[in-house]
């Protein structure tokens, strides 16, 4: 019998998100499926905020996929990163693994060094753990 690869839907990935949040000015992180189901969130974030973040960010990720053709990429291309710039803050939304997305909030302007460091730390975590950050496809119910 072969052992199944651990994935974010079977193992707690909070520790990964808590490490990302240790970077300067990183506020929160949420890992969720492409359809918005929260798999893990950083320790300092309330679950209800994580749920709303997962729902909203999965919609953005889907929108990014739909806009691929507009950007000259093949239709349905998965976005690598989506940036939402807010006054004195930004949200970074990354494709994490198969069927998963990772959102990170940073309390700094989009062009600040802190956002660049947060982005690099998140990408490093994703590249190092991509198979584990994946989620199995969920069965559809009738």
Automatic annotation (TrEMBL):
Alphabetical list of InterPro entries matching this protein: Mycobact_SerProt_Inhib_Rv3364c, Roadblock/LAMTOR2_dom
Residues in Roadblock/LAMTOR2 domain copies: 14-106
Pfam family name, one: Robl_LC7
Keyword tRNA processing: no
Domain of life (superkingdom): Bacteria
Keyword tRNA-binding carried by entry: no
Keywords attached to this entry: Plasmid
Protein name as annotated: Roadblock/LAMTOR2 domain-containing protein
Source species of the chain: Streptomyces sp. F12
Taxonomic lineage of the native organism: Bacteria, Bacillati, Actinomycetota, Actinomycetes, Kitasatosporales
